[in-house]
Design brief:
The protein is mostly beta strands. It has a domain at 57-154: OB fold (Dihydrolipoamide Acetyltransferase, E2P) (Beta Barrel). The protein has helices at 8-12, 47-51; strands at 35-36, 55-65, 73-78, 84-89, 104-108, 114-116, 119-121, 124-125, 127-132, 135-140, 142-143. Strands 2, 3, 4, 5, 8 and 11 form a 6-stranded antiparallel beta sheet that branches. Strand 9 (127-132) and strand 10 (135-140) form a beta hairpin. The protein is globular. The termini are far apart.
């Protein structure tokens, strides 16, 4: 039988038990009465067109600010292919690069490369955007880290 402080084996070996997980700061409640959401599109997209989009889980290996840009972050991503993927995203106003390293995000991976600030951006990270009290709010979609790089979204 295991005790709460770790396994009996680790106590016998004289090893310290792993420290308890740090408390997670609770997310402040959002007053949704102040949130403005863009209207839904009226035009339909046929299923075949939608199905051509390749959404994948990607792991952030590196993230850095793009020199001479106030908005752009450069992401080096593991998309499961064995090759690094570079995507630039204009979200620096909302995130610092170091807080995104190691996270699992969602990207559309079959967009043609787009040159930005002399760097080819090979895809797009997916974010949720809304307005609250007249200010734009953006949240990069991040998912459970147990989802492997390259997992396809349907």
């Amino acid at each position: 039988m295991k005790t709460l402080g770790g396994s009996d084996a680790s106590k016998k070996e004289g090893k310290a038990a792993a420290p308890a997980a740090q408390a997670v700061e609770p997310v402040k409640d959002i007053d949704f009465s102040k949130v403005e959401i863009e209207p839904l599109f009226k035009d339909f997209v046929d299923f075949e067109t939608f199905a051509k989009s390749d959404y994948r889980a990607v792991k952030v290996k590196e993230c850095s600010a793009v020199p001479k840009s106030k908005k752009l972050l450069k992401f080096v991503l593991d998309d499961g292919s064995g090759e690094d993927r570079v995507i630039l995203s204009g979200i620096h106003e909302y995130y610092e690069p170091e807080e995104l390293v190691g996270k699992t995000a969602i990207a559309i991976t079959n967009l043609p490369p787009r040159p930005m600030m002399g760097i080819d951006s090979c895809g797009m990270l997916i974010s949720a955007v809304h307005h609250e009290e007249g200010q734009e709010r953006l949240h990069l979609l991040m998912v459970d880290d147990r989802i492997p790089a390259g997992a396809k979204l349907y």
